[in-house]
Every structure is written in structure tokens, then in C-alpha cells.
Batch of 3 targets.
Target 1
Amino acid sequence: LTDLETPVAHDFDIRYDRRLTPEFLAHFCPGGFASSLATITKSGLYPLDLRTRRDAKSGAEHVTLYTGLTAVLQVLSSKNGTIRLAAHSTHQKQGTFDKAWQAARTVEDWTTLWPEVELYLERVIPAASQSHGRTEGAVQAAIGSYRDDPPQRVSAAHHVPSPVAPEAGSDEPDRDDDQGDE
């Protein structure tokens, strides 16, 4: 393109498939050793956000639990199927992160060790939320933890309600009042 040409949409049609492999994703679904991460994130008790990523070139995969914009736990896969954990040194210290978790281990090992990881999260999340989760990342956490279908979308600039509203005189509760139990 020259400086005078207007870019056309197809000029920027670059896509990367960053979805996790089904094998790695299964660890975070019901029955997987790390399924509690989704439960903790959706609880709404803290401004948490669970994000997944796969590198399009290398195939490396990881899942990161954020409070605000700071990562408190990363679960990283390797090509041979082993998994290791990582966390920033500040959070390691606050939550007494076991440095041995940084070594690659089998899924069977993590199934046994995961209750200890959950204890780390119980210690680190409140502290990290206090220092990092009060303002930064609050919108991301709100969007990521909303459980209704179709979801309401929240942004810093405006709020767009769900396209489905209860009819007048309906017994259905208003979405804002519906706490839901999952």
C-alpha cells in the first residue's frame, strides 16, 4: 500500500488460532485436576479472570489466573504432556508458592498436589486482590465471570443490557436481581 491508498479489510485478515488443545483444556473442565480454577473465578468473591492461550507457532499452551491485571498463577504445558506452574515472585512470597511446582510434573502428580495449589490460591488471592484488583482489571473480571446466557456486556464507557428482557408481568426475576446458584 502507498500512503495514499486506503487499506481494505482483507488486507488485515490475519488470524491466529490460540485455542487450547482438547487434551490441555480437559484439565480445567469438570473432572480435570485444575477444574477448581473455573469455579474460583466464577465465584464473584474477588475480581478474577481466567485466560487461556496457545502460541500459534510453537504450540505452547498456558492458562493464567489474574486478579486485576496481575497474574497470580500460570499453568503451563510442555510438548511431552507434563505441566508446571509459575507465579510472580511477589505472589510466591505472599501465598507461600512451592518452588517445586515450577518443575514439570505429570497429570497424575498434579492430581495429588492440586489441593496444595488451592491453599496457595486461598492465601494469595485476597492479598493480590487488595493490592491489584480494586480498580485495574475490574471490567475484565466482570465480563469473564458473568454466568447468564445471553451475557450482559459491561465496559468502562457504557453498559449494554442483555437482548432478552422479561416480559411485563412475568414471574421471571429481573437479571440484575438474579444471583443464581451454580
Target 2
Amino acid sequence: MKPFILSTGKERGSPGGSALIICLILIVMVTVLVVGMTTTARMERVTVAAYQATQEAGFLARMGAHVAMARIAEATDATASWSSAPGLILRYDPAASDPIEIPLYSGSTSEVAEDISVNLNPPALVQPRGLILKDPAIVMAQQWIYLRQDGTFLPAGEVPAYSATNPAIGRFAFWTDDAASRININTAWTRRGANPGNAGHPSKVELAAAPPLTDVMVDAVNNFRVNHGALATPGEMRAVSTGADTAYSDAPEVFTHYNHAALLTPWGEPRYFLTTQAGNLASGETRYFDILKTGSSSPAKVSSLDPTKVSALFKELYT
């Protein structure tokens, strides 16, 4: 007969082993969380740094435009006569024998030098042409303008000396073209008899003067403007007329879609004068807010308004 021995549970294993496994699992989970949080923080820091660099680059890129705008505003005030040209404004002072030249570029130079100047017409990445002019061999060298941390500009072409307290934080270069010297695709048409305009009308500019545009092509462009409105960009000529894409691709710097005729809107349409009285119009002008029942009545009174004329004007302006 075997004796009966009461088990104490020690031979089944200690419960301390289970606690150890649980602790290890918790440590692994905490480690994974800490590593994940660290990785996320590092990625966010890189993202923020990249966003900051993008914003700084954008500010520097726009700074060239703002400098050009400031020079134009200063040169074209109402106290003097002036004329514009690509990259330049000539200001005429009655007391001076020669006009004052106001450059609309950062600093002209004949060659590109590292850290001093840059070519603004480099070859495009996806097309065998320059970014501004078609021929990438034409170098548009402009000097850098450096900006220090305190907001001061260095003279064009001057490389900044090292400064631990006021380092250089960026640079920019720019050139301002004069679109007024380009062919306006929203006003130019032809000098042929098909154009009924007078000799001074903006449509008398010969659009076909830019090869390989032909009379058939420019007539198609004019018909599109008449039936559908102004072109939003010069590139839209490619969709309006077959063959016009070659003209734009060959010389995009020749065309503009902005309007510079005083009596036309930026979309090439006749301008409305802000008056309800025909007697206030200049000689030869016909478009005004013709919304009154009688021309001498006041537009401030609802009873003076002609609903039919108001509806027609609204349709003309907003459709």
C-alpha cells in the first residue's frame, strides 16, 4: 500500500515565472510605443523643416517681384513723365538733359559666375528649350541679391562675408519684362479688309506677323474671341487653331493675353464707363450703364430704372 502525499504545488512551477512574462510583454509594448512616438516626432520635425524651407524659398522668390513693383511704383508716379521697355523704365525730368534709367532687374552681367550671378534661362527639364526664351543657348545672366538675417540687402553681385550674428539667409535674382511690347492675342487680328476697325484700333495689329501664323489661323482666333470671349493664356491658341501651337512654342515671349488698350478690358472687350448719363461720355464712346427710362433722371430712384435695360446690362456683364 502506497502512502498518500499531499501536493504542495511547488513541483508545478512558481507563479513568479508568469509575472516575469507579463513584465516582459509590457516592456516590449512600452518600447514599441516609445520608438513609434520618437519616429513620429522625427518625421514631423523633418516635415516642419521642409515646410519652413519651402515658405522661405517662396518669400525670396516673391521678393524679386516685390522689389520690381516698388521700383515701378516709384518711377511712375504722377509727378514725372516716363516710358517703359523690357527690363527698364525711363523717367524724364524737365531739369535733366537725359532720362533717368530705373532698372527692373537685379543686376545685369555678361556671364554666370558661381555665387555671384545666375542664368534665368536654363534648359527646361522636360523640353529642349529655355525656361524664358526658346533657345537655351541664350544666357540671361543676372546678379544675385543677398539678404541678411536683419532684413538688409547687399548690393547686387556682392558675396556676403561671414557673420555669426547676422548671417546671409537667402538670395534672389529677377528680370522684369514689358508685356506692352508683345502681341496681345485678345486684341490683335489683321490689317486686311476683313477688319472693319479704323486705323488706330487695337485689332489692327497684325497677329499673323508672328510666323508660322497665317490669315486662316488668326481668323480662327478672332472668331473664337467673338463667340466665346477672351483667351485666358497665350497657350490657349493651340486649342483654338491647328498650327497656332507651333507659333506659341517657337516664341512664347512674343505673345501676351493681357490688355493694354485704354478703352478695352483685360479680356479684350470694350470697356464700360461708370455713368448712367450719355452726356458724360468722351467723344466716340458708346458703352455706359444705360439703365434709365429717361437719360436725365436720377439712378438713385427705383422708379427711374428701366427693368428691361437693367436685365440686359446684367446679362452682358455677368454671362
Target 3
Amino acid sequence: MRKKISILSIIAGLLFMTGSISEAMSNQEEARFWVSMDCNSCKQKILDNISFEKGVKDIIIDLENQLVVIHYNSKKTSPEKLLQAIQKLGFDAKILDKEPAQEPVEEQKTVKDPKQQEGDCTDAPHHEEINNEEGAE
């Protein structure tokens, strides 16, 4: 009799956990952003800071296409709040449509300063603290 009660308790617990997991998964959404990042320092700054925003589950960054994809819990944050967090870091950014454009990627790229195309974007506003640290030395 005790074995049956234990087994039923385990089954009930598993069903409860499965319900909680499926509820959490149903709140997970994806937001896509264009972000004015041009180098690995930019990418790392976004990863280091946005990862700790409330509700963020995963971040995927495509540096070449200046694309940031964030998976988040919609009960804890929103694309608008995430956009503000990115902009607070000093980046220009905008929310993109959920579905990627059908045009080839080459046609979607923005024209950049030639200096930035070489991977040097240290004159950009989001590098102010890096530039200030170098000037202090």
C-alpha cells in the first residue's frame, strides 16, 4: 500500500513539474534587434549586460549582420524594455519584425564608415568608457 502511495506521489510531482515547464515555455518569446555594433567588444558588452536583464533566457548575436536575437519570458520583460537596455549601453538599436526579411542579406546591410568596416569602431559613442580608460593611462 505504501509503495502505491509513493508511486502516486512521484507521478503527481512529475505531472506538476511538467505543467510548470510547459507554462514557462509558453511564455517564452523571441525579439530581434538591429544594433549598431561593429566589433567583438560591442558583442561582449551586449552579452555581459543584457544577459542579466530580468526575463532574458538566451541571446544570439550575429555581429556581421548587426543582429541580436533575444529569447525572453514575456511575463517578465518586453521587446521595448530590452531595446531600452541596449540603448542604455550606448548603442543605436531598433526592434525588427519577428520574421526575417525575404531579401538577401547583402541588400539589407547598412553602409558603414570605412574605418568601422575594418573592425575599428572605437570612436563610436558606445566605446566612450573604453576610450576614457585608454586616455587615462
